[in-house]
């Protein structure tokens, strides 16, 4: 696998490029992301799918500029995929040959089922553990669904309903919503019954934009949209308000200007699919087709899925920022021993032992940025980047433990901003104390063999060597 890989996704609405850099065998991180609203499908749906010259010129210019960025980052590999608009276009081959001959970029047009598969692969590997769900990716020309059962992608489907397609065929012509719903409903009849699921994973710009608006409306404490979850029925009236709104109303509802021409279209598709599948919970994925394409290349020998014990963000953090990984693993071991030994008095649910372990592995990554106040650097690193493989609750707890493992335990006031996502204060304080004590035991970095016991309200620590620095 190449050190740096560029993935280009040419959709009906936007062309996007992501550049990934590897840090170890399976770990990597995003180093650049570029988007252009090319609208390559614009005008095509009223002309039998034929791509129009203004849109083709925009697409060419965008890919030409993507090429400059690829050279600037010295990418070793480029994968360029195209979806619905080029899939449907009678003149696609002319454009593809022009890009190959003049820009040396090879475009691969993928089928709808492959597009759905890539999106599901990205979501499965980037989100917390997913057992049973259906993914939905609402694009400009089509909508893709994938069914996940027991953590495995078992079926995919692509439907010819998308935001740009609906805009040009219906919304621009002021066709009544009832007729639009009837058109969508006919296409949704193709979805097999086994796609019904309680949990839905939202992929793509429309659903990420919707999640961002809901986060703002509910004063959600984090800014990270990836991994954000909400109960669908609680926000159904808001989705309906978007569908029924005019452009001025969209602004009042909090829709960004660049989404005015596709948000209603996307939400009416979302609304219709929900009615068909009966989903109750939405899980937002920041990963989609580009990440899925990259992972299918990276994980081609392991069924396109990380080992269950592998956490992408954790390994990537450690590759780039850990300065004493062996010491941190020792602190993790001690923290787990302390957790077990003191369990009769702290009564913390055993599930939090894992967050304690991860905090131990990441407690000093901020030193790479600067030694003084390094726990604050670590806190912000974790808060903003420990996204892949972790829920929001797990991420904020780990960040808080790292922040308060020195000097003092967190207070109610310290926890107030993130209170909705954290366990009770006693749990957080206990876990912070366990992490701090584990670090103190290894202050001299000798990784001494220790034995712990708790009797008669006394914790006894027997070490092979004296631990003067930690006392």
TrEMBL record:
It is an enzyme of class 3 (hydrolase). One of its GO terms (molecular function) is guanosine-5'-triphosphate,3'-diphosphate diphosphatase activity. It comes from the Bacteria. This is Guanosine-5'-triphosphate,3'-diphosphate pyrophosphatase. Keywords: Hydrolase. Residues 313-462 form the Ppx/GppA phosphatase C-terminal domain. InterPro entries: ATPase_NBD (IPR043129), GppA/Ppx_hydrolase (IPR050273), Ppx_GppA_C (IPR048950), Ppx_GppA_N (IPR003695), PyroPPase_GppA_Ppx (IPR030673). Its EC number is 3.6.1.40. Residues 19-299 form the Ppx/GppA phosphatase N-terminal domain. It holds the Pfam family Ppx-GppA_III.
């Amino acid at each position: 696998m190449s050190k740096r890989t560029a993935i280009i996704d040419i959709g009906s609405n936007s062309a996007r490029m992501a550049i990934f850099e590897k840090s170890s065998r399976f770990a990597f991180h995003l180093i650049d992301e570029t988007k252009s609203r090319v609208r390559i499908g614009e005008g095509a749906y009223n002309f039998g799918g034929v791509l129009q010259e203004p849109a083709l010129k925009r697409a060419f210019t965008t890919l030409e500029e993507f090429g400059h960025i690829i050279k600037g980052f010295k990418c070793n590999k480029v994968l360029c995929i195209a979806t619905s608009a080029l899939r449907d276009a009678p003149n696609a081959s002319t454009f593809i040959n022009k890009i190959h001959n003049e820009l040396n970029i090879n475009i691969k047009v993928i089928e709808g089922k492959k597009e759905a598969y890539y999106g599901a692969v990205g979501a499965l590997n980037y989100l917390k553990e997913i057992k049973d769900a259906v993914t939905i990716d609402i694009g400009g020309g089509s909508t893709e669904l994938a069914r996940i059962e027991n953590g495995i992608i078992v079926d995919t489907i692509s439907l010819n309903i998308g935001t740009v397609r609906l805009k040009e065929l219906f919304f621009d012509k002021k066709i009544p919503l009832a007729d639009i719903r009837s058109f969508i409903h006919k296409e949704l009849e193709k979805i097999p019954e086994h796609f019904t699921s309680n949990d839905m994973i939202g992929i793509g710009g429309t659903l990420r934009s919707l999640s961002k608006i809901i986060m703002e409306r509910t004063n959600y404490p984090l800014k990270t949209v990836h991994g954000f979850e909400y109960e669908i029925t609680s926000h159904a009236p808001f989705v309906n308000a978007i569908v029924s709104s005019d452009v001025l109303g969209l602004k009042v509802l909090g829709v960004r200007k660049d989404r005015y021409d596709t948000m209603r279209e996307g939400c009416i598709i979302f609304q219709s699919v929900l009615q068909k599948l009966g989903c109750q919970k939405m899980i937002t994925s920041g990963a989609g087709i580009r990440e899925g394409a990259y992972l299918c290349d990276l994980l081609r020998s392991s069924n396109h899925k990380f080992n269950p014990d592998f956490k992408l963000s954790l390994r990537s953090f450690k590759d780039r920022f850990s300065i004493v990984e062996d010491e941190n693993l020792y602190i993790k071991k001690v923290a787990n021993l302390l957790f077990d030994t003191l369990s009769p008095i702290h009564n913390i649910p055993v599930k939090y032992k894992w967050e304690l372990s991860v905090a131990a592995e990441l407690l000093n990554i901020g030193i790479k940025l600067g030694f003084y106040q390094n726990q604050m650097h670590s806190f912000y690193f974790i808060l903003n980047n420990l996204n892949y493989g972790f829920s929001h609750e797990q991420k904020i707890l780990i960040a808080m433990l790292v922040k308060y493992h020195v000097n003092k335990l967190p207070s109610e006031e310290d926890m107030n901003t993130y209170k909705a996502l954290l366990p009770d204060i006693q749990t957080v304080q206990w876990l912070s104390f366990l992490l701090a004590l584990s670090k103190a035991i290894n202050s001299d970095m000798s990784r001494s063999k220790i034995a712990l016991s708790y009797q008669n309200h006394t914790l006894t620590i027997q070490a092979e060597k004296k631990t003067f620095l930690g006392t």
